[in-house]
Amino acid sequence: MGDGIGGAVINILTNNAFELLISHTRKDNQEEYGKVEKIIMSKIDDPNQPQYEEKTKEDLERALKGKFVSCNVQYRDKKTDALVCNVFVQRPPEGF
Predict the structure, then answer these.
(1) What pTM was estimated for this model as a whole?
(2) Cβ atoms 64, 12 nearer than 8 A
(3) For 46, which DSSP code?
(4) CA 1 to chain centre
(5) Rounded distance, CA 21 to CA 28, Å?
(6) What are the counts of helices (DSSP H) followed by strands (DSSP E) for the chain?
């Protein structure tokens, strides 16, 4: 896919999945996205925690809940309707 979306992590679902409140999309995205999407992480990049490893739901909650992330969408999982993404923890945009 290669689309880009961004927003706040509003809910942690499992040790590698969360709900994203989408506030930013790239203009050249090929697909349409809902206001809230379920994200399954294929990779996470957080400069503040470069050694983050997938552990527990609680670990992911501490690492991501309430933070602004951008996601490079790899594909939408047909069974779960979730987006499989590379996730990058970002500074929130101005006015966020």
Answers:
(1) 0.84
(2) yes
(3) -
(4) 15
(5) 20
(6) 1, 5
